[in-house]
Design goal:
single chain, 89 residues, mainly alpha, 2 domains, elongated
């Protein structure tokens, strides 16, 4: 290997940590931006939900009850399905 090529290779190897730090900093920045955006959207959704529940409390109770029934039925079906699979073994 020629000395000039070796020097270029060594310089590239020395640059790796600084490039890795730049990439990590960019990733942190993008993650923080994403978390901020998601947090803002979640706060907005919570405010809207609170306003709707305050305006229509019985509708909210009915929706919550219906969702609970559906979730409970799905959970029961999943448990029964697991039991039948296990009993066949």
């Amino acid at each position: 290997m020629e000395p000039a090529q070796t020097d270029r290779t060594l310089n590239k190897m020395r640059d790796i940590p600084s490039r890795a730090e730049d990439v990590a900093e960019e990733a942190r920045s993008r993650l923080n931006d994403t978390v901020s955006a998601v947090s803002e959207k979640a706060r907005y959704a919570a405010r809207i939900t609170d306003q709707r529940v305050q305006a229509n409390p019985w509708t909210a109770v009915g929706i919550g009850f219906g969702a609970g029934v559906v979730f409970g039925a799905l959970l029961t079906m999943a448990i029964n399905s697991q039991r039948s699979i296990i009993s066949r073994l």
